[in-house]
Amino acid sequence: MSVLDDLQYINKLDKSNVYGSVVALADQIKDAWTSVNKLELPKECALAKNVVLAGMGGSALGGRVVKSLAGDRLRAPFEVVNDYHLPAYVGKDSLVILSSYSGTTEEVLSCGNQALSKQAGIFVIATGAKLQAFAQENSLPGYIIDPRFNPSNQPRMAVGYAIVAVLALLARCEFIYLRQDEMKNVESTVRGFIQEFIIEVGEKDNLAKKIAARLRNKMAILVASEHLVGAAHVFKNQLNENSKTFSALFELPELNHNLMEGLRNPAEAKRFWHFLFFESDSYFESVSKRYKITEDVVNRNEVGFSVYKLRSPDKLEQIFELITLGSFINFYLAMLYGIDPAPIKWVDYFKQELSV
């Protein structure tokens, strides 16, 4: 029996119940949408001319996903800041979203102080701590997450909260048109894919387990386009933090202008590379055409690859389909490596050294 079908083995490794967070994604989506739609928001939020989300790591994933939708949905510029400093253009006409799951991220707190000094509109997303106190002291609106559907308490596993909180806020402030039934469809789609990928479905019939097996002892090179780039970034982030493995993400068509020539050397490394292409019928036709040709180039360079074609009918559902698939693959890959996916010892070490 495959270790991925061995519930006893998995439960022994998964000490913090990361799997519980994986299978709760649909519940996170529903909870965040309902909660943010109950909040009282200042009417002025709809008057902002640009939106900036400040966040790091898992807390920035919601912003990255929303930014991937920008071309289709958003009526104003949207930027994600992974730094201590807000852009110079931020001012009274800006809405700044401060996202920190722990509520203690120093880069986000720094951006919060700058947003105050620039008299920007501010909205907070956190589970509590310093960021919640900052919001209370300055009478700022915010979504204080009750992480009941994130039993592992890992920020990277709170993606349902992080993404949908931002979507709901932007819909409430009229930056994006998003219907209630669309989110219900997303929730239903996620629940359906969860049932395909859960532990109880054996490796023989479980695509997430099969892909995880292909990625074992490989460097995963993810390729996505347009609306799926943010979701692929979630996948990459979780490969690093959950599977404790190297990964890279490239956008197509940009990679056609450089990366293909970089597949020649070092020749000894090729056996460790594995490309994972995310195809979609929703891509612009000229972009879709590039996938098969790019896959052929990768094959001609004797590099392994896999293809996953999104099955959901619209872009928003495809985004969450990919996030669901990625979360399961990353969890199963950690199991194949025989490691607990929760601890992030090097991130913790770095934070400890930085605080000295």
Automatic annotation (TrEMBL):
Superkingdom as given in the UniProt entry: Bacteria
Keyword match DNA damage: no
Domain SIS: 41-180
Keyword field contains Transferase: no
The entry's keywords: Isomerase
Record GO terms (molecular function): carbohydrate derivative binding; glucose-6-phosphate isomerase activity; mannose-6-phosphate isomerase activity
An annotated GO BP: carbohydrate derivative metabolic process
Record-stated family: Belongs to the PGI/PMI family.
Protein name (record): SIS domain-containing protein
